[in-house]
Amino acid sequence: MTRHIRFNAFDMNCVAHQSPGLWRHPADRSHRYTDLGYWTELARLLERGLFDGLFIADVLGTYDVYGGTDEAALRQGAQIPVADPLLLVSAMAAATEHLGFGITTGTGFEHPYPFARRLSTLDHLTRGRIGWNVVTGYLPSAARNFGEADQLDHDTRYDHADEYLEVLYKLWEGSWEDDAVVRDAERGIYIDPEKVHHIGHRGPHFTVPGIHLSEPSPQRSPVIYQAGASPRGVRFAAENAEAIFVGPPSKRVLRDTVARIRAALVDAGRDPYSARIYALATIVTDATDEAAAAKHEEYKRYASLEGALVFTSGWMGIDLSRYDLDEPIGNVESNAIRSAVAAFQEADDDGREWRVRDIAEWASIGGLGPRFVGSGESVATQLQEWVAETDVDGFNLAYAVTPGSFEDVITHVVPVLQERGAYPTTYTEGTLRHKLFGKGDRLPDEHRGARYRLGASLSTVTDRYRAYVG
Ligand SMILES: Cc1cc2nc3c(=O)[nH]c(=O)nc-3n(C[C@H](O)[C@H](O)[C@H](O)COP(=O)(O)O)c2cc1C
């Protein structure tokens, strides 16, 4: 059977998400991001295209690494202004039936107790279509505005996130029994107190003795998304994630990354296919290869190299304003940047030495992933090759212009893939987790979160509380 390719739309509650300067293109509507109608129309469009979900990125800081200030980010509208992603979901859920929502929030910026309730609320209101993209943050400017001198160091951020998730799993999986709400009018009992359990969590970062405030929602734990790339990040993803986002620029790097993640899933005691892996990509398509190439050239004319350097400086933690655009990359003092550039160069290798300008051009439309340019047939063929050669499950599609880039994919690429039997023709009924894996609404037994589940471990939960109260 031909393998189905899965699509997610990659967006953010801001203008021109990862395509700096493209907000100037006449077809781009991202400046309407403060209008609820913009989001409900986008959600309906993506559902028409049978996308798995809309994934909304987020940061809680400005990109001020470039030039050491946020001036360039502000001038460019580079993910600033940026509004809250969670508040968009209820309206989009009311406008759709099947589309999933992957919402990003950081583990460093909000206590897990109220956060658990907000996600449970959204899981109820979406009837089980909520996912959470767990990020540990990368912008020092975010940490500073929470009163910290800087962010925690990289691996400590993941250790902190481990406990953050432990608290959440205890609340989502281990506090309320499924039949705790009895709504017994005769006896005047709404909830059976015997069936609601204190979680008794006490750890290095969090103390949460009590019960979850929400009753069990369709999925209990939302579908967990993650995008860790470092060895520590991949281990964290393998223990927690059910959808994993990766951003390698070339097929070879993607193949290695996917293999590394599948092996890490096995090390974590899980099925290697128990997480869907989506590669970041941007598709520029039209009726013919020539029309698509012309569209791509036109987008390039609107793209802002300064905006791209604002982003890449933030992502890599290097101030690229200190270098001339024509400076060879070898002169940039960073191992991180050299290894990233080696990967880009391999994807687009014409033998010349890469300069700072090349990084900016690469990242100026859709961020660090590859760009597929061509007719529906050509793009479908490339995507199928990538899937066959890398074992990736699908693509997380950034836009050049919105909603135009998504409309183009749905008009030109989706029907070709469907004809080839390589794309779904209908949604599976049920929750987002069931749509992704076909195995029910709740976390599978081998998942880390299931360890905190009621049932077998019921007494443990109570014991934990007793231990907590002493
Ligand atoms: C497709 C994709 C989307 C991401 N979205 C966000 C985001 O919205 N917010 C954020 O703070 N980090 C985001 N990240 C960054 C990751 O969470 C993570 O910090 C990064 O991949 C580096 O992983 P590492 O810390 O394990 O090296 C994203 C990464 C990728 C590849």
TrEMBL record:
Keywords from the UniProt entry: Flavoprotein, FMN, Monooxygenase, Oxidoreductase
Organism for this UniProt entry: Rhodococcus indonesiensis
Keyword Oxidoreductase: yes
EC annotation from Swiss-Prot or TrEMBL: 1.-.-.-
Keyword Flavoprotein part of the UniProt annotation: yes
Domain of life: Bacteria
Record domain Luciferase-like: where: 28-388
NCBIfam families: FMN_nitrolo
Family: Belongs to the NtaA/SnaA/DszA monooxygenase family.
Record-given protein name: LLM class flavin-dependent oxidoreductase
GO molecular function: oxidoreductase activity
Pfam families in the record: Bac_luciferase
Principal EC category: oxidoreductase
